[in-house]
Amino acid sequence: MSTFGIALRDLILNLFTIAANCICLPFAVWSCIKSFFAAFKPTRPLKPRVVAITGANSGIGEGIAYAYAKDKASLILLARNMERLEKVAKACRDLGSPDVKVVQMDVSDTKSVAAFFDEKTIEYGIDLFIANAGIATVPNTGVLNQAEQILQINTMGAIAGINSVFKAMKKRGKGGQIAAVSSVCGFFNPPLLLSYGASKAAVMSYCRDLRVLGKENGITVNTIAPGYIATTMTAGWSRNNKFFFLTPDYFGERVKEQLARDVPLISQPFHQYFAFALISSLPPAAKLWVSEFLHKQIS
Fold first, then answer.
1. Which of 23, 47, 84, 169 is the 20 to 30 A CA-CA neighbour of 287?
2. 84 within some domain
């Protein structure tokens, strides 16, 4: 296809996208109205008694653990670093969690992940599983050599836990809730984070479709897509302006609240969600231009 033909294709796609959004606008307005009035109706929030969290030794996982500890939920905290995990567990007990179990686990070992949740989901009575463990980059490794490790941890490790818990909850027959931490980079990401963005996009897509399948078995599936959260993963980023980032503890509380209300896609800060989601809706040529711009600006 000629360059002109490709440009024409993108123009037509853009016009169809505008038309489709205009057609969907009344549905969006109706959804807002319906949600507004639903807020005044008494509903029972989802309040898990037993919560399992991978990657709970720091960052977002730690913040979410503290949020549920304050609600007196029992916790199963999983991570590789046991020393740090024990400290988080102690803090959770001090905050009011009646029972905190710690499990050393490397989610890149998907067989061990599956075996653990196959056995323990029913035994421990897990009501909510949060697949949070993940990495953004592999230190001292070229960009093109990071893909296998990042995808193994972020995507296959998450899916191994999600699938095992889902099947165990289905077998138990009492429903449950599963949430996975993706990222706004699942919508769009700078080229230097190509493996991270691909891994998070895969998780976002997987959970979106699994949510539909889960309804048949009373299993609620949610996706968490954080923006800039002040964790060790983002330690090299500027924190001069608090408008651009959230603390893990604050984000953990927001995640807990929105999981209780069964928000399908949880994403904050809102301005970062809007920016990345908007870029993802652009035609291919426009997204390529934005990608080239970001590559020049971000090292």
1. 23
2. yes
